[in-house]
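Appendix C. Worked example: DUF393 domain-containing protein
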Amino acid sequence: MHREKILLVYDQECPVCRAYCQIVKIRESVGDLVIVNARECSEVLNEITAAGLDLDQGMVLKMGKKLYYGSDALHALAVISSRSGALNRINYYLFKSERLSSLFYPPLRFCRNLLLKLLGKSSINNLMNS
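Step 2, the predicted output written as structure tokens:
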């Protein structure tokens, strides 16, 4: 039986994003989570850029043909996540609500952007490169 591939596109240069993507697990019944580095050319990156989604301002989750962006991506991940392990349970409770996700996401994005600046990392600039 063919399992759906669910793509999570994130910034591998961000240590917090990288840690999150290594920890988050989805339920086996949903499909296979495939982690995609937003800094490497790929078909899904082209699709995200064509949709006008700025990867410097949010991660993207692709399920089927639908793209979830920023807080919507975190919320969708929480809904399909496994509850195994303390960090996956925390992820679920923090982001299972669309309202909480949209409340928490802007400060998380700000911290990510500040961290990258402090580390001297460049922006992804996927919209500028299109």
